[in-house]
Amino acid sequence: MSENLKTIKELADELSVTKQNIQYHYQRLPKELQLKSSNGSNLINSKAEKIILGKVESSRKSNTKDQQISNKDRQIDQLTKLIDQQQQLQLTTVAENQKLKDHIQKLSGLLETPKSARNQQENDKKEAIHKNKFNKKV
């Protein structure tokens, strides 16, 4: 019975993984599945290939999930950073608005002072007129 035997390199190339990856799974096979060629090279029969293929596929799925989780973590970090920046901007805007309100109140106070001075001047004029009338009568 001629079984289709492959080397670690052949299986690695076929599955597009490293030789080390195949070697790792090969060494964890039961001893009866670990075959050697006449020159001492490791050989993989169809049964061992199925087991290794299952391990490689499981590893790929795990890596894909790990990558997805890693991507989600990066997205969360970026969104958190954006929220922090937005909050800082909001605080800065609120502080600037308060400064503007204070400045407007200060300017309003300065405008009120001339009105008061005008009112005082008008009152002074009325008093002067009243005194003139009073002085004329006397």
How do you describe this structure in short?
This protein is mostly helical. Helices cover 79% and strands 5% of the residues. It has helices at residues 8-15, 19-27, 46-137, and strands spanning 6-7, 35-36, 42-44.
Give an overview in words.
The protein has 138 residues and is mainly alpha-helical. The protein has three helices and three strands. It is rod-shaped, with a radius of gyration of 45 Å. It starts with 5 loop residues before the first strand and ends with a helix.
Beta fraction: 5-15%
Unreliable spans: none
How confident is the prediction overall: mean pLDDT? Answer: 87
- Categorize the overall geometry: rod-shaped
Order the strands across the largest sheet as they lie in space: 1-3-2
Helicity level: over 70%
Any idea what the radius of gyration is? Answer: 45 Å
- Terminal residue distance: 149 Å
Largest sheet report: 3 strands, antiparallel
Structural class: mainly alpha
User: Topology as H/E string?
Assistant: EHHEEH
In total, how many beta strands? 3
Number of helices: 3
Blueprint (SSEs and pairs):
Elements: E1 6-7, H1 8-15, H2 19-27, E2 35-36, E3 42-44, H3 46-137
Antiparallel strand pairs: 1-3, 2-3
Short key terms for the protein model shown above:
138 residues; mainly alpha; 3-stranded antiparallel sheet; 3 helices; 5% strand; rod-shaped
